[in-house]
Design a protein that fits this description.
Mucolipin; three-stranded antiparallel β-sheet; membrane; 3 domains; mainly alpha; transport
Length: about 400
C-alpha cells in the first residue's frame, strides 16, 4: 500500500510527504499507526461582494485533520476541524462604502434595543424588589395581628414569575445585541456569531413565552395557562419517575447491545434512539439493524425493544396525558365553583372594580417632575408608603 501526500512547491519541485518525514529523521511505522494529527493554517480574503458590509475581511483558518486508526480494522476515520480568526488586513485597503446609512441604522437599532431592554430590566427588578418589601411587611403584620405565619401559597403571591422571565430575556437580548454591535464594528478578533445567535435566540424564545401572559386576560386562553400551571408539579414528579425508568433502559441497552447495534454504540446515541422510539420514529430500522451474530442477544434485543416501546407508548404517555387532563378538569371545576383561596387572598377579599377605583387604596402623590423621579428611583417614597401598612408605631426595619 502506497502512503504519502504529494504536492508541488512554488518553484515547481514535487514534495512527497513520506520522503519529507524520512529526511527529517522521523521514523513512522504506518502499519502500526494509531492516531495522527495534521495541523496547518490558511489565510484568505473575504471581499463579501454580496453582503451588507463592503470592507474586505482577512481571515486565518487553523485547520486540524485527525486520522484515527485505533480500531485497526482497515478503515481510518477522518475528522476535519477549521477554526476561523479575523486578522488585520495590511496593504491597499481602499474601498467604496456605499452603505453608511445602513450601518448607522443597524447601530441605532442595536442601541435602541439595548436601551429598551435595559429600561424593562430596571422596571421589572424594581417591581420584584417592591413586592418583596411588601411581603416582609405582610408577614410581620400576620404575626402581629393574627399570631400566625403567612402560608407558602400566600408568600408566592408576591413573586411574579413573569417578571423573572422578562428579566432573563432582557439580559440575554442585551448581551446578544452588544455582541452583534461589536461584531459589525469588527472589534472581535474571531467570529462570535455563535455566541451572539445563542443569546438572541434564547431571548427571543422567552419573549414569545411572555406573550402567554397577555393571553391570560382572555378566559379561553387562560384555561390552558392555568392547566399547565396546575399540572406542572405533578408533571415534574411524574417525569422524574419516568426518567429513572428511561435511564435503566438506556444503560442496559448501551452495555448489552452496544457492540452489536450501531444505534447503541454510545450513551448519547442510545438515548437518541430510545427517544425516537417513544415517538414511533424509525422502529423497523432499529429492529432490522441488530446483528445476528449472537442469537441470544438477538432475541434479547427483541424483548428489550418490545418492552420499552410498550411501556412508554401505552403506559407512560397515557398516564402523562391523564395527569394533564386531571388538571384541566380541576380548572374547569374551579371556574364553575370558584377558585380556592390562600390566607392572603382571604384577608384581602374580593373587591370589585368600583371599589378598587373608588380611591380607597389611593395614596397621596404629587404631580411634579421631582416626585415622579423620586417614585421611580428613590426608596424613601416606598418606605413612607409601606409604613402606613405596617403601622406607625411598629419597629419595622425593612429597608
Amino acid at each position: 500500500m502506497k502512503l504519502g501526500i504529494n504536492f508541488t512547491l512554488p518553484n515547481g519541485q514535487l514534495l512527497k510527504s513520506k520522503h519529507y518525514i524520512k529526511d527529517s529523521g522521523m521514523e513512522i511505522n504506518f502499519a502500526a499507526l494509531v492516531r495522527a494529527k495534521l495541523m496547518f493554517s490558511l489565510k484568505t480574503i473575504n471581499f463579501r461582494a454580496a453582503g451588507p458590509i463592503t470592507p474586505p475581511e482577512c481571515v486565518r483558518f487553523d485547520v486540524e485533520i485527525i486520522f484515527d486508526n485505533e480500531d485497526h480494522d482497515g478503515q481510518m476515520s477522518l475528522v476535519l476541524e477549521a477554526e476561523p480568526y479575523k486578522l488585520v488586513c495590511n496593504g491597499d485597503k481602499n474601498y467604496i462604502t456605499d452603505n453608511k446609512i445602513d450601518q448607522i441604522l443597524r447601530s441605532i437599532l442595536n442601541i435602541l434595543v439595548i436601551l429598551i431592554c435595559s429600561a424593562s430590566l430596571m422596571l421589572c427588578s424594581r417591581a420584584i424588589y417592591r413586592a418583596q418589601l411588601l411581603k416582609e411587611l405582610t408577614v410581620q403584620f400576620f404575626r402581629r395581628a393574627y399570631n400566625k405565619e403567612l402560608s407558602w401559597d400566600g408568600r408566592l403571591e408576591f413573586l411574579n414569575i413573569w417578571y423573572i422571565m422578562i428579566i432573563v430575556n432582557d439580559l440575554l437580548i442585551i448581551m446578544g445585541s452588544a455582541i452583534k454591535e461589536q461584531i459589525e464594528r469588527n472589534q472581535f478578533t474571531n467570529d462570535q456569531w455563535n455566541v451572539c445567535s445563542l443569546f438572541l435566540g434564547l431571548g427571543n424564545l422567552l419573549v414569545w413565552f411572555g406573550v402567554l401572559r397577555y393571553l391570560g386576560f382572555f378566559k379561553t386562553y387562560n384555561v390552558v395557562i392555568l392547566t399547565l400551571k396546575k399540572a406542572a408539579p405533578k408533571i415534574f414528579r411524574f417525569s422524574f419517575c419516568a426518567l429513572l425508568l428511561y435511564a435503566g433502559f438506556m444503560f442496559c441497552g448501551w452495555l448489552i447491545l452496544g457492540p452489536y447495534h450501531m444505534k447503541f454504540r454510545s450513551l448519547a446515541t442510545t438515548s437518541e434512539c430510545l427517544f425516537s422510539l417513544i415517538n414511533g420514529d424509525d422502529m423497523f430500522a432499529t429492529f432490522s439493524i441488530m446483528s445476528k451474530k449472537s442469537p441470544m442477544l438477538w432475541w434479547f434485543s427483541r424483548v428489550y425493544l418490545y418492552s420499552f416501546i410498550s411501556l412508554y407508548i401505552y403506559v407512560v404517555l397515557s398516564l402523562f396525558i391523564s395527569v394533564i387532563m386531571d388538571a384541566y378538569d380541576t380548572i374547569k371545576q374551579y371556574y364553575s365553583e370558584g377558585f380556592p383561596k390562600s390566607d392572603l387572598q382571604t384577608f384581602i377579599g374580593e373587591p370589585c372594580i368600583e371599589e378598587v377605583s373608588s380611591g380607597l387604596y389611593r395614596t397621596q402623590s404629587s404631580s411634579s417632575l421631582n416626585a415622579m423621579m423620586n417614585s421611580l428611583f428613590c426608596c424613601n417614597f416606598y418606605r413612607s408608603a409601606y409604613s402606613k401598612i405596617g403601622g406607625g408605631g411598629s419597629n419595622l426595619n425593612i429597608l
